[in-house]
Specification:
The protein has one domain: Peroxisomal Thiolase, Chain A, domain 1. Helix 5 crosses helix 8. Strand 2, helix 2 and strand 3 form a beta-alpha-beta unit. It has 383 residues and is α/β, with parallel strands linked by helices. It is built from eleven helices and eleven strands. The strands form two sheets. A nine-stranded mixed β-sheet has the order 3-2-4-7-1-8-11-10-9, sandwiched between helices. The chain has a two-stranded antiparallel sheet with strand order 5-6.
């Protein structure tokens, strides 16, 4: 695989808005506020943006809606929507467009008012004709199937799943912007209401509002902006199915394909990675992705996360903002993986700041373990 994109583009602006609860704002208004924050962060004007990449859960034609709302006339635009991993794919697409000279400043953005609009945990990502007779509650029914199979094949325990949630809360308690903070024990997670056996409410992501946006330029301009550039090092995606009933193996996701290709493009090894940001819609996600991305052998994910290994002070820094389980999850979470990667690499993460944060792995998940996209960001020292 060619590594021609490595270090050729960089994020120079990052912004968030409405994280947690933002009553009175529409999804597009929150998106607009995050764009304004990203522009201010970069010291740019809206007129500087000439490419738009957007996906939302509330707009069928996301980039067109964003363009109209913001009053832009971009040279390049894209509305690829593969669920929560869309934004990691947008990093790759924006970098391709910038390197090809099709644009000069690319905006990637998302916004949702899922919580205050009265939204429930629902998913439009599943074709229903196969599952309808069984009355599933997607997406959680699908993730519960994957969890049950992993437990059956590898001896993974509900306690292991709970340890994922406890680790995420440990990080959230260091993040003043996290929605869910406070004590959380393994027993708390295990004793929560059972939603879809074997997953309790404590194994499920939050339902919040929130918006985020970032701005990318070519690397030759990256140092002209106020903040330290965060360079795009590489990315790859893989998609093997849409409906959970078509998943080839409920214990192996397409991250096992996207991960190796992204590592190759980024020219990094596992030992180089300082931060691992995983799309933790449910506790099983973290275990599956740690395995499929090569941080532990298949079937060892449950044992890998025990005893605080991915919590603050553990051997591997995973989801340092608190993740979708304790920080924010407004329908699609992928933009917030990017936001935390940028914060850590810029050394703007406050109490949760890692001692070394030069290379961040971001892994997005869409649908029901369907689309998988792995991306790498890095500091100047990583080039």
């Amino acid at each position: 695989m060619t590594s021609s994109l490595r270090g050729k583009t960089a994020i120079v602006g990052m912004g968030t808005a409405g994280v947690g609860e933002a009553p009175g704002f529409s999804a597009m208004e929150l998106l607009g506020l995050s764009v304004r924050a990203a522009l201010d962060d970069a010291g740019m004007e809206l007129s500087d943006i000439d490419a738009v990449f957007a996906a939302t859960s509330s707009h069928a034609f996301a980039s067109m809606s964003v363009v109209e709302y913001l009053g832009l006339k971009p040279k390049y635009f894209d509305s690829t929507n593969i669920g929560g991993s869309s934004f990691e794919m947008h990093l790759l697409q924006a970098s391709l467009a910038l390197e090809a000279g099709l644009c000069d400043a690319a905006l990637i953005c998302y916004g949702s008012n899922q919580r205050t609009a009265g939204g429930r945990l629902v998913s439009m990502s599943e074709p229903q004709w196969h599952e309808t007779p069984y009355n599933p509650r997607h997406p959680i029914t699908a993730y519960a199937l994957a969890t049950s199979r992993h437990m059956h094949e590898y001896g993974t325990r509900r306690e292991d799943l709970a340890d994922v949630a406890v680790a995420a809360r440990g990080w959230a308690n260091l993040n003043p912007g996290a929605f869910a903070r406070g004590p959380l024990t393994r027993e708390d997670v295990l004793s929560r209401r059972m939603v879809s056996d074997p997953l309790t409410a404590g194994d499920c992501c939050l339902v919040t509002d929130g918006a985020a946006a970032c701005i990318l330029v070519r690397a030759d301009r990256a140092k002209d902006f106020p903040k330290a550039p965060v360079y795009f090092l590489g990315a790859a995606g893989a998609n093997w199915h849409r409906s959970i009933q078509a998943m080839p193996d409920l214990t192996v996701t397409a991250a096992s394909e996207s991960g190796p290709r992204a590592f190759e493009m980024a020219e990094v090894s596992h030992g180089d990675v300082d931060l691992v940001m995983l799309y933790d819609a449910f506790t099983i996600n973290t275990i599956l992705f740690l395995e499929d991305l090569g941080f532990c052998p298949k079937g060892e994910g449950g044992r890998f996360v025990r005893d605080g290994r991915i919590a603050p002070g553990g051997a591997l820094a995973v989801n340092t903002n608190g993740g979708g389980l304790s920080c924010v999850h407004p329908g699609m979470y992928g933009m917030f993986l990017i936001a935390e990667g940028v914060a850590q690499i810029r050394r703007e993460a406050g109490e949760r700041q890692l001692d070394r944060a030069d290379i961040a792995l971001l892994h997005g998940n869409g649908g029901t373990l369907s689309s998988q996209v792995t991306a790498f960001l890095g500091s100047e020292a990583a080039l």
